[in-house]
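Lesson 9: reading folded outputs for more than one chain in a single document. The general rule is that every protein is listed as its sequence immediately followed by its structure tokens, and records are never interleaved. Here is the first one.
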Amino acid sequence: MNDAPFDSVDPGSCSRHYSWAPAPEDPTERVYAGVDALREIIRGERHLSPGAHTLGVRLTDAEEGAVTLTATPAEWALNNGGTVHGGIVSGWVDSALGYATASVVEPGVGYNTLDLNVRYIRALRLERTPATVTAQVEHVGRSTCVVQAKVTDTDGRTCASASGVMMLFRP
């Protein structure tokens, strides 16, 4: 695959340099739909969205109605208190909601976040990452998809739980 994205962090100089894959020229290939498309991402045949790549997530498992992502933050993701910034965690959850939705819609169906509610349960410390983000579809209808998500640290402790509604754009 051409233009493979990369992410490099240099803690010594407090710098980060990364790239993302260009958007496909064919608009139908920009929306991921179906488990097969997600498995192509896992195998490296397709790229994550630029936003998900920027947030340091990797899709590691996908089945119909459920996905698992691994989130690997670095110092760039910390707040002033030294824990992973809640906005970063929220971004991980939003990505997971989208990929879970993708696992249950047919090609040609678009989707976007309509509602997102994140509950922060405990601070996520860098030394307890990579975090695991799981998302499971609770209901899929004609115009919306309801998804539940959870973020856990390397000790298996829940750091955040979330629910969201994705708006579906059917042809």
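And here is the second record, again sequence then tokens.
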Amino acid sequence: MRKNSPPHSGRSHEEIALLLADARNNERLRCAGVISGRLEALAAFIATQRLEWCDAAELLRQEASHIDNQAQELH
């Protein structure tokens, strides 16, 4: 065994890569579900309040900004 090599975990590099890819895909699915739910809520709000197109557009811009800010906090 080499001095700087990590201890053998019992998993190959390919298995670890597959596990990481699966975790990333699960996180993407979760994020997509959150955003989809938020868009549905915004659409319902726009419809029930009968917002004018310019107000609806501004609401969507605010939500996009909110999502961008959350993404920046993660990095």
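What the second record shows: Residues 13-74 form one domain.
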